[in-house]
Design brief:
Elements: E1 7-16, E2 19-29, E3 34-38, H1 45-53, E4 60-65, E5 68-70, H2 75-81, E6 83-86, H3 98-102, E7 109-110, E8 113-114, H4 116-129, H5 146-157, E9 164-168, H6 176-191, E10 195-199, H7 203-209, E11 212-217, E12 220-226, H8 232-240, H9 246-254, H10 261-270, H11 273-276
Parallel strand pairs: 3-10, 3-11, 6-9, 9-10
Antiparallel strand pairs: 1-2, 1-4, 4-5, 7-8, 11-12
Helix pairs in contact: 5-6
Amino acid sequence: MTASPVLSLSGVSKRFGAVQALTDVDLEIRPGEVTALVGDNGAGKSTLVKTIAGVHPIDSGQISWKGDPVRINRPHDAQELGIATVYQDLALCDNLDVVANLYLGNEIRSRGVLDPVTMERRARDLLDTLSIRIPSVRIPVASLSGGQRQVVAIARALIGSPEVVILDEPTAALGVEQTAQVLDLVERLRERGLGVILISHNMADVQAVADRVAVLRLGRNNGVFPVATTSGEKIIAAITGAADNAVARRRRRTVPAPTTPEEADSTSQDSTPEEAS
């Protein structure tokens, strides 16, 4: 039985001046599933994620949390609901150690004084639970590899016990071993019952960990595909708009409209599925 969506977007639109960034976008995020959000540059992925994260309030449409309509006007609203976002720049402090980065802004205090012992213990427990391997929780983040920095940023997002985690290009610029480490962590987030939104340009990564792929093209939905039964070529075609090219448009424009039922039937038989749509 498919779980009910923890987060759903219906008819979401967003405009920046004369630029229509999103138009009537729908999206559903279910617990225990990884939904990959893919699209070409300028497709609207970053804008959509920022509307969910509260950076850009939507102009129209509806966002629902566990079936109830909500308004997300600022990042704090998203965090209170249980939405955590890990952006591509990670926003880690290189001069601070792992514990300090994990609890930055959420420090644990005892009688008004920082409690470093409790923070270190909980940091170790969290990293062990996620099977994250780093030399020590007390070394500066600057000394960690790219993959280790990425998993620390993801672990920090889990401090508040979110139910939805958004990962913006988590494997960008990582090596093979580091990418594998991050993808392993994404799978562990799914096993913990979290709804994961994964933004990626790497189809191999998407097919390795995602359950569904939601494609955006020119700010609109262009299909949602189950990874298990969909070829990579079909997803790429949806991303690039291969079925909607200049030649197909020209043919549709130049073919005369049928004047009899017999001609209409013949035209529908000769057309391809892409042309018919």
